[in-house]
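Field reference: sequence -> structure
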Amino acid sequence: MKTIKKVSESYIGDTPIATEINSSSTNDEVAGAKAVYDYGETLGKSEYSTTEQVVGTWTNGKPLYEIVKTGTVPTVTTDGTAVQSAFDIVTDKVDFAFIVSSFVAQSGNGSIWTMPYYNNDMRYVKSQVYYNGSQQSKRLQVTSSGTVYNGTTYYIVVRYTKTADTATRTLNANLQMNTGSLLDTGDRTELNELDGETLEKAQNVEETKQEEIKQETELEELTKANNETSGDTIEEKEVEA
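Structure field:
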């Protein structure tokens, strides 16, 4: 049988996904292969796993993990009424997470919907990361408001760092105490996520600020001393008079 195009060597877990498209491929195989190929090209990698794997290092020096979360989109009874499904990314506590890509696959006609997807104003399906206060951890949530998505399967490629891991890039104690002098209140970046170049700039800003404070203090002391001297001279002239 003649192969039309080889698109990927990708996996979901241990299962290879439509590595070849040929004249006998079903709509599902074609759509699935294209989706995996597109995402693989975008991310620069061709192997995904439902098992946690380390894929790099985040800006604060913590290990960066990746996992593919998959499941059935929550069932909607009435179009326009949103139904949510929330779940852990992993069992460990997660302090930072972001979705790299997410889509919904329909088993019937092979349709692939990249989330968030809006069929119309009333019917949508989307995924998001949210913080759970009681668990003190980031989690995932899939929301659907359309019956058209019932029975479809979601795939979420998510990357994250763990609370238990140690950040290796931090500022010194003096700079940490002076956060307000380095960053605007409305745009408060975590100090331990600053890269080397930004850190150097921050240190220069802090040193300049400390030097200005020192100069202002010296000027105030000098002014005070001059005022006291002037006062003594006036008092002496009044006595002489």
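Note: The radius of gyration is 30 Å.
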